[in-house]
Amino acid sequence: MPPKIGPKRMQRLIDEGVDPRTLPTEQQLDFARTMARILLPPASEGRPRRLPRHLRPRCMARRRDGRRCQAKVAWDTAQDRARNTTCRVHGGLSTGPRTPEGRRRIAESNRRRAQARRQAQAQAAEHASAQAQALAQAQAQAAARAEALAAYQAAVAKYEALRQHPMPDSRFKAALMEVQKREVERRYQVCLDCGVDPRA
Ligand SMILES: [Zn+2]
Asked: Do the Cβ atoms of 160 and 176 come closer than 8 Å?
């Protein structure tokens, strides 16, 4: 329960530039009552001092477009206070379920809704983790492919460097080239003579 909004706290909120309509309904009510106590003349001529209509807080319900309902809360004129935190079209006039059957139905409905919410949350979490896993897998596969290609290109480059090396053609150079060529062809299943790259 937040502290009551008396004259001091109200003044501080005003100094801080807080819009009282952004406060929770109970605090909006405190704010409005304090404001009314200060602004209104004392009760006179048998007419009780009432909270002015324009200071009544707004309905807490969400509209279908996701914004807050703009109507005033349902008002108990006899006691000069809000009956509820919602307007007359959003259940502010309702006194809630009274019969055992009605109370049971509401409890049942609340249970079902809570269960559905928990299920949806669990499903969303599962979905997110599956997506993250798939993404990590795809990234790992791409990295492995890039690594394999780089290794292949390095092996071929080594063979090419050998072939173009300025050392005189000799049985030694030929043997070196043969070793590297066989290594590349065995490991990557290609033929360096036809220059066919199976990956292309
Ligand atoms: Zn409303």
From this structure: no
